[in-house]
Structure formats: C-alpha cells, structure tokens
C-alpha cells in the first residue's frame, strides 16, 4: 500500500539529520579541548534574574538597575563590578555608555549637536546637585510608579535606583575603551583604527562646554525634527532623563533645555529643544531594546542621535557606520551576579569555580547581553584567564574561541 | 524547450530586482540602507567562513534546519494521530476542538516567554515554538482530510467485510493522506518561519534568525540579506520536495 | 426451492425535516440462486434503500428476512457495486480487487489473494491494467474493476446500485454483456437497481417494479426470452414498453430517463 512511504521519508529525514550533525567543520580541526571552559548564553537584561532564579544559568553580567534588583530581591549576590575585571583594571574608568551622533547630522547642525551634548552635561550636573530627585526621576522613567515584580519578589523602584546609583559614575570625560576582538567581519573593509580615531568627535563637546559657560548658541534655519534613540530599560541614561524632567531649572540656568511636550509624563516620548523659550528643534525619543539595533538605525539614517553602550558603537564605527562618539555618559554600572549559594565571593574565586566546574564536565553557564560592553568585558577577561568560551546550545564543534575572526 | 521558457520567466523578475537593487544601492551609497551585491555575494560564496566569531552561514543554516526538522517531526507525530481520531470520532473532536480553536490563533512567538520558563533557553524552547507552529496546520489538515474521505469508500469497505479498525487503517488513513501531506507542507513552512523569528529573540547562539539579529546589532546588512536569501532558498527547496511528494504519491487526488 | 433470500414485509421510516417519512412500506420479494433480478421504480421511490438494507449498510424498521424477525442483514453474504466513484483511488486495480480478500474476516493467504485476483482480472479482461491506478482508467473499466472487486469476496448475492447509469451507451452495453458473461461462469445471484427499462429487459430473469414513495411492490414481471436477447425483436420492444408504462402509470405521467 502507498502509505508505506511515510515511515521511509521519516527515516530519510532522520538519516539526513544524523549525517548533518556528523559533518566535520573547519573549526573543529583547530580546536583544542585542553583549556577550561565557560558557557556563554545571550539573553536580554530583563530575562536574566528569571534565568538565574530558575537555575537555567549560574551567573549573569549585566547593567544597572538589573543588578540592584537582583541584589535587593535576594535573587543573587554581586561578586564583581567594572574595576574588578581583568586585564589590569582595564574597565575602571572606561566609558560604559556614550552619546553618539550621525556624522552627517553633526556637520549639518553643529549648534544643535552641541546643545544636545550641553544638555546632557547639564543633566549630569543636576544629578550631582540633587541626587534624591535624580533617583526619583530615573526610577519613575525606568519602572513607572508601580513596584517592581520580578521572579516572585516585589521591590520599590526608588530603593533599587538608590542602590544602583552607588555604583554608577556619570561623567562626560571617561576614556573610550579599546576593544580587542574587533577585526574585519565578512564583507566589510578593515579600516578599524582609522575609523575609530575618526569616530571620536571632541569638538562638539568642547563647544558644548562653552555653551554651558554662557556662550550664545547661533541657530540657523528652521526648527527641525531630531530622532533620538536610547534604551529605556536602563538607568545609565539618567543624565538624559533628569535633563528632560528638570528642564525648567536647566532653562533658567543656561537659557536652553530639552522640554518634554507632555509635562506630566514620567516617560515622555516627545520633547522640544528650547533656546530662550524658542523651539529650535523637536525631539522624538525612540526607545530601543539593544544598543546594536539603535546603532544600525543611525547607519540607516533613521536615528540621528543616540544614548547607547560604547561597545556596539565602537563595533559599528569600526565597520564603517558613519557616526561619531561625542562624549561618555557614565562609567561603572556593570555587575556580575551569581546565585547566593555559589561558592565564590569575588572574581578570583569565580574563576576557580569555573575551572572546577569545567573539570567536572559541567561548565558554568553565564548570561550576557549580546554585543554589549559586558560581553566584551567577559570575553577579554576569560581570554586573560585562559578560559575558553563555549556558546550555549551549540554542538562543541561550532564554537570558536576568543577571537572575533 | 517549454521547461526552459518556464524557468526563464521564473527568474526574470528576481534578476530585474537584483539589477534595480544594485542601481539603487550605487545611488544611495549607504550599505546600512541597501548593501550592494558586491557585499552580499562574498558572504554567500563563502558559506563556510565563520561570521562574527560564531558559526558560519552554512552551519547556521544547518542548525536551523535541524531544529525545524525535529520540531516538525515531533508535531506530526502528535498531530496526525490526534487529527485522525478527532476527525473519526465526534466525541474526541468535542473534547479537543474548543481547546484547539482557542490556542490556534495565538502566534507561536507569543509562547516564547513561557517556553523559556518551561523548556529552558535554547534548544528546548525553540523546539517547542516550532512544535506549536507546525502542530495546528497538521492537525487541522488531518481532521479535514478525514472529513473528506468519501462515505462511499467506507460503505464499499464495509460491504466487503472490513471491520471498524480495518476501515480506519485501509480507508480513513490513505484517504486522508493527501490532505495530511498538504498539512505537512504548510506546517513545515510555518515552522520554518516561527523558528527564524524565535531565533531572533535572546537565548540562542546560532541559527539563521540569530545570525540576522546579530548582524542587525552589528549593522551588517549584507549578512542579513545573505541570511534572508538562505532562508528563502531552504524554503523553496523544502516546498519543492513536498510538491514532488504530492505528485509522486497523491497523483490521484481530485481525479478519482 | 433454491431461494437464497426471502424478504417479508419490510418497512423503513426516515426522519426528514422534523417529520417522519415512510420510505418503503411492506416490501416482500424473493431471490433464487443464479438469477438476475432488476428492481425498478420511479425516481426516489426507495429502490436504493431496499438494496442497502439487504447489503447491511442500512437497517429496516420492521419485517422478516429469511424467516427471522430481522432488521439487519449483517449475516447475509452480499457485496455491493455502486454507481461510480467507488474504487479506492490510492490502490492499483489489482489491490482494489484484492481489497475484500485482505480483510481479517476472510483469512486468505497472500498467495490465495493473488491467485483470486488474477482470475478476476481475467474474468473482467483487465489483466493489462493490473497495476494501473483507478484515475488512469475509463468509466467502463472502473466499473468492471468494481464488479471484480465485489465478486472477489464470493458473495451469494451481488447487489448493484444503478451500476451502469454513469456510463456512455457503448460502455453500458459492454458492461451489461459482462454481467451476462459472469453469470454464465459463476453461481452468483444479481440484484440490480436500475431505472432503465431496456437494461432491465436485456439483463433480467425477473423485474420487480415498486410504486412511488412509500415504495411497495407493484408488480413482478418475468422476462420470457432466452439470452442473448435481440433488442430489435418486436416482442422484446413491446415488453420494454409495457414495463415503462407500469412504472409511469403509478405516477400519472411518463418518467424521463
């Protein structure tokens, strides 16, 4: 009967699967199994506490305020922060997040670019002046007014932000980190150094400081629409949040500010760039979910200005994204979280734990946000410690270690 | 000759699009908006090269294909018997139909957060998403297939002495097979699309969807386009194989 | 006598549009061995229902069959040939013919099945098409296969429900001759529902005519001619005319087709 072919086809498919999984791949030939290994899994920041709580991962590294949420919610303990990661305190004063703009935008609107930079710096000063108010603004922006519910716990957003702010330094002058793994991915030209050095634009920030010191902005042309991208799940952009919601103080102090269109909203989506009570530009605040995606938006000319992590920015600039870093926003704010019961208290004991688990054949699973500064920190630190990275869920034959080629 | 003309007509439009694409890309001069084929083709003709320090294009394709086949086979193994029973017995249908109608309109991707909690990140949750995506087309086609089995065939079988079980095995199943096969074809397509979408979410480290998302985060649009082309090619080839199966095994359908 | 089927006063009521409708009313008839009986009557009078009750596909509501208070005919050894679309399209001609033999109740070995199938293929002259699929055959060939398939289970009575009505006149005559040929070789009784008086007179030993709904036996006509019948013989033509009138008289006007 003709129905007999069904099992035959199933058999063929299964055979096909077997053959596929046995195909030797080039990397397999050069791979060595002698090093201890750690398993890396890409996850979104919001998933991480849940993953740790359900023992799907053993540790995660991510940005504030997820770290403080996990700490206050007793989901895990923070065992290391930015300065603790090797090699040699590399990340201690590195820019974690940056203000980045499209080159074309800067060239066409140098005054507006400088105004945005100046307003960001004004926001930082405002945080310094009134940290309590800054924490309230940030908590409401990131979490709204309701308690945070995560993995079975309930937290007050303000407590979380108070904790988080201890570990973040807002500064416009942190150094831009050098990313060791950047080389040329397929299809793009390798002008890394050239691109990076031309990808940092100091003149905008220098002029911004002049504006803050009383120099009058010269605005030419009609008011225009600016698309501003940022990641609303992170509190590291507090200078932006504070600058917008404290616009009155800033306008009174400097004569310019970014005023929200809807004054009562905790998380406005439109603002007006004001100079002496005149609107010189409207600003659309576009929430993104990953820095890389926002950065691609800059490359595609759909976003002009962005507040995002330094690593996706550097990766993309090195690959020819015509954008420039204007200034840093913060340093610090990353943290490595493990389960309360994990046998480690700092980076050193974490490494011992990794090595031990690796020998036991049960490597530690670490969640990282994809192409973030945190992933970069881990890649370089593990490279330094001689630990091999295995990507989660991949057959071992498909894992390439450390380098980005 | 006729076949050649058919092929010619089939590729005319894609070739035109490629040419227009290239002209536009040269005019725009921004590979983030429209990467030229001089960037895309190198990715496609080096499918074994590692991309972004991870798996290569070929490997990502293979791993996606493996996942989709496993999820798809799992779905068929459960959906076909359930569909046969549900189509055959009104009582079984009364039990399952409301639940199926409630669950069917839910986009498989909406299951992702739950899937991660239940089946863990990576393989398990992805397989579940493909399973959900493929399950309903197979189930519904199978029920449809059973309902479309001619009563006349059942009467013939009964008049020739077939028992209920024999009628089920020798009439219902082969009579419903063309519909089931169509269900397979649909389900594989849906499963494939669900997989690529699910791989774009965090929690995977390989696969074409992952590759596309990673390339997006790195602004490598040419890799995205290459990934899309591979997805399309795998889709066309699998659909072609299903259609071959249809003409090979169910030539009788609609002609009896 | 050689009676293999005696039906006494069977009735059947259908529920239709919330009202009950009597389809057949006290129908009685007898079939003997190796005879061809045609069942005729106005359209929709319940001819097929009688056939289905005998085949066991339907049950009667009251009546006696073969001496038993009886409403289901499962125990009777019959096989049915339908008007059309009855072959299993996924099975080859040979597999279709062997279908009934492969059912559990039949206990045939594969060798017996093959032997029987070859015999029947020869009987209906379809040897060349043993491996063809039904959709590759003409309408007449399909009905020949359907007849062979029904004969394979060696029924005492072969029930045929308007078996040739979907065929063109040429194929129809060919099939009618086939039936006569089979009857010559086998002991099977043929009970054929038809609405074609010419067909009935060409084939049957007896013609049973039913009234319009609710159906009851109007008349039984014995056909006195020997086979093969000469269809241009005036006596034959007269009898066809007579049968036609008997059917239509029950309805008051001539039945078309």
Oligomer: heterotrimer
Spatial extent as radius of gyration of chain B: 22 Å
Question: Pairing-aware structural class of the strands and helices of chain A?
Answer: alpha/beta
Number of domains of chain A: 2
CATH architecture identity of chain B: Orthogonal Bundle
Low-confidence stretches of chain B: none
Overall helicity of chain B: over 70%
Note the overall shape of chain B. Answer: globular
The total beta strand count of chain A reads: 16
Q: Tell me about the biggest sheet of chain A?
A: 8 strands, mixed
Mean pLDDT of chain A: 79
How much beta of chain B, percentage-wise?
under 5%
What fraction of residues of chain A sit in β-strands? 15-25%
Query: What is the name of the CATH topology of chain B?
Result: MetI-like fold
Q: Kindly provide the radius of gyration of chain A, computed on alpha-carbon positions and rounded to a whole number of angstroms.
A: 24 Å
Mean pLDDT of chain B: 86
CATH superfamily (homologous) name of chain B: MetI-like
N- to C-terminal distance of chain B = 31 Å
Q: Which structural class do the helices and strands of chain B define?
A: mainly alpha
Description:
The complex is a heterotrimer of chains A (405), B (256) and C (257). Chain A is α/β, with parallel strands linked by helices and 405 residues long. Chain A has helices at residues 5-22, 26-30, 48-53, 66-72, 103-108, 110-129, 131-143, 157-165, 192-198, 202-212, 238-245, 247-254, 291-299, 310-318, 347-359, 373-385; strands spanning 37-42, 59-63, 77-81, 97-102, 148-150, 153-155, 168-170, 224-230, 256-260, 270-275, 278-287, 305-309, 323-332, 334-338, 365-368, 388-391. Chain A folds into 2 domains: 37-92 and 337-398, no CATH class; 97-332, no CATH class. Chain A is globular and about 70 Å long. Mean pLDDT of chain A is 79; it is low at 24-32, 184-190 and 400-405. Chain B has one domain: MetI-like (MetI-like fold). Chain C is built from 7 helices and 10 strands. In chain C, α3 packs across α4 (139-152), α4 (139-152) runs parallel beside α5 (169-185) and α6 (197-203) packs across α7. Chain C is globular. Chain C starts with a strand and ends in an 8-residue tail after the last helix. Chain C is 32% helix and 25% strand. By secondary structure, chain C is of the alpha/beta class. The chains are: A alpha/beta (405), B mainly alpha (256), C alpha/beta (257). Chains in contact: A-B, A-C, B-C. Chains A and B meet through α1, β1, α13 and α14 of A and α2, α3, α8, α9 and α10 of B.
């Amino acid at each position: 009967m003709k129905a007999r072919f069904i099992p035959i086809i199933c058999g063929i498919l299964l055979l096909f699967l077997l053959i596929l999984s046995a195909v030797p791949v080039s990397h397999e030939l050069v791979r060595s199994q002698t090093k201890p290994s750690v398993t890396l899994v890409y996850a979104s920041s919001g998933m991480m506490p849940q993953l740790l709580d359900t023992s799907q991962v053993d540790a995660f590294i991510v940005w504030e305020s997820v770290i403080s949420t996990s700490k206050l919610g007793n989901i895990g303990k923070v065992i290391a922060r930015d300065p603790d990661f090797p090699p040699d305190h590399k990340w201690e004063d590195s820019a974690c997040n940056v203000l980045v703009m499209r080159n074309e935008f800067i060239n066409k609107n140098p005054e507006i670019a400088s105004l945005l930079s100046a307003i960001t710096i004004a926001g930082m000063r405002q945080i310094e002046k009134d940290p309590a108010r800054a924490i309230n603004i940030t908590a409401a922006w990131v979490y709204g007014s309701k308690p945070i519910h995560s993995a079975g716990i309930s937290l007050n957003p303000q407590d979380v932000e108070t904790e988080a702010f201890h570990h973040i330094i807002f500064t416009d002058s942190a150094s831009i980190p050098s990313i060791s793994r950047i080389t040329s991915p397929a299809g793009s030209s390798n002008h890394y150094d050239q691109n990076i050095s031309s990808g940092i634009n100091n003149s905008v920030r220098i002029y911004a400081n002049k504006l803050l010191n009383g120099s009058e902005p010269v605005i030419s042309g009609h008011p225009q629409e600016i698309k501003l991208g940022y990641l609303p799940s992170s509190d590291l952009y507090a200078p932006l949040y504070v600058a917008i919601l404290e616009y009155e103080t800033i306008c009174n102090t400097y004569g310019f500010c970014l005023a929200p269109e809807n004054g009562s909203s905790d998380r406005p989506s439109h603002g007006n760039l004001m100079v002496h009570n005149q609107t010189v530009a409207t600003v659309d605040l576009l929430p993104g979910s990953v820095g890389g995606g926002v950065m691609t938006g800059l490359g595609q000319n759909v976003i002009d200005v962005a507040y995002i992590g330094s690593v996706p920015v550097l990766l993309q600039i090195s690959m020819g994204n015509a954008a420039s870093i204007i200034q840093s926003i913060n340093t610090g704010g990353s943290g490595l979280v493990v389960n309360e019961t994990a046998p480690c208290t700092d980076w050193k004991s974490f490494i011992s734990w990794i090595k031990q688990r690796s020998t036991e054949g049960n490597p530690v699973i670490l969640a990282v946000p994809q192409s973030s500064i945190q992933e970069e920190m881990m890649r370089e630190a593990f490279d330094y410690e001689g630990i091999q990275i295995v990507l989660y869920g991949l057959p071992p034959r498909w894992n390439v270690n450390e380098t980005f080629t | 000759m006729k076949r050649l003309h058919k092929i010619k007509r089939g590729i005319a439009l894609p070739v035109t699009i490629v040419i227009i694409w290239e002209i536009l890309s040269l005019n725009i001069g921004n590979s983030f908006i429209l990467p030229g084929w001089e960037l895309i083709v190198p990715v496609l003709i080096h499918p074994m090269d590692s991309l972004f320090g991870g798996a290569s294009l070929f490997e990502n394709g293979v791993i996606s294909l493996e996942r989709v086949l496993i999820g798809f086979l799992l779905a068929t193994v459960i959906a076909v018997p359930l569909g046969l029973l549900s189509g055959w017995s009104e009582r079984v249908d009364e039990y399952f139909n409301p639940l199926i109608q409630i669950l069917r309109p839910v986009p498989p991707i909406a299951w992702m957060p739950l899937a991660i909690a239940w089946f863990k990140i990576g393989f398990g949750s992805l397989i579940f998403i493909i399973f959900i995506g493929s399950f309903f087309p197979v189930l519904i086609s199978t029920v449809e297939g059973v309902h479309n089995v001619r009563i006349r065939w059942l009467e013939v079988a009964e008049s020739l002495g077939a028992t209920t079980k024999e009628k089920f095995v020798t009439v219902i199943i082969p009579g419903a097979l063309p519909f089931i096969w169509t269900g397979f074809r649909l389900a594989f397509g849906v499963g494939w699309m669900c997989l690529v979408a699910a791989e774009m979410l965090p929690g995977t480290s390989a696969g074409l969807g992952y590759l596309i998302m990673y390339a997006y985060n790195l602004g490598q649009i040419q890799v995205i386009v290459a990934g899309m082309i591979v997805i399309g090619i795998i889709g066309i080839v699998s659909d072609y194989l299903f259609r071959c199966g249809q003409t090979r095994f169910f030539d009788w359908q609609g002609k009896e | 006598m050689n009676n293999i089927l005696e039906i006494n006063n069977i009735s059947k009521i259908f529920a239709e549009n919330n009202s009950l409708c009597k389809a057949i009313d006290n129908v009685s008839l007898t079939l003997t061995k190796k005879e061809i009986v045609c069942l005729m009557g106005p359209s929709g009078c319940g001819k097929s229902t009688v056939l289905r009750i005998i085949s066991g596909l339907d049950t009667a509501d009251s009546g006696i069959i073969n001496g038993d208070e009886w409403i289901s005919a499962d125990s009777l050894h019959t096989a049915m040939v339908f008007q059309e679309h009855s072959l299993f399209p996924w099975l080859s001609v040979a597999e279709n013919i062997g279908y009934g033999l492969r059912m559990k109740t039949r206990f045939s070995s594969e060798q017996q099945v093959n032997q029987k199938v070859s015999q029947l293929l020869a009987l209906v002259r379809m040897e060349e098409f043993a491996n063809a699929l039904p959709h590759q055959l003409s309408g007449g060939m399909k009905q020949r296969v359907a007849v062979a398939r029904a004969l394979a289970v060696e029924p005492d009575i072969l029930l045929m429900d308007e078996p040739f009505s979907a065929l063109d006149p040429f194929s129809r005559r060919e099939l009618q001759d086939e039936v006569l040929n089979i009857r010559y070789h086998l002991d099977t009784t043929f009970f054929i529902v038809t609405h074609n008086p010419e067909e009935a007179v060409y084939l049957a030993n007896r013609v049973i005519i039913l009234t319009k709904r609710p159906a009851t036996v109007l008349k039984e006509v014995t056909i006195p001619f020997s086979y093969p019948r000469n269809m241009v013989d005036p006596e034959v033509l007269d009898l066809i005319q007579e049968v036609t009138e008997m059917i239509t008289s029950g309805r008051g006007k001539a039945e078309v087709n």
